[in-house]
């Protein structure tokens, strides 16, 4: 049997292998680009992206203070165009 420490190390390795890839870093760069253009934060773009998906989603969000919570709510006002969504999802290099 593996120890709890071994299981934790395996889980951390799995997360790194699943999430730390070139495509995700490309998505991150594109999200930063759009956030700067729209004058909003990266988390706001990420949340607006999730809420713009055709499948009904209910993301859990939080904040350390009222300002962060207000920023989360304000993502509902961010207009991500179909071109923005395709760009963020690496389906297009154009916007």
Describe the structure.
- This protein has helices spanning 4-19, 22-38, 42-51, 66-74, 82-88.
- The chain has 5 helices and no strands.
- 62% of the residues lie in helices and 0% in strands.
- The termini are far apart.
- By secondary structure, it is mainly α.
- The mean pLDDT is 91.
Q: In short, what is this structure?
A:
This protein is mainly α and 95 residues long. The protein has five helices and no strands.
Secondary-structure map with pairings?
Elements: H1 4-19, H2 22-38, H3 42-51, H4 66-74, H5 82-88
Helix pairs in contact: 2-3
Fraction of residues in H or I helices: 55-70%
What is the total tally of β strands? 0
Structural class: mainly alpha
| Major sheet details | none
Terminal CA distance? 51 Å
Please state the average pLDDT score. 91
Question: Main traits of this protein?
Answer:
mainly alpha; globular; about 0% strand; about 100 residues; about 60% helix
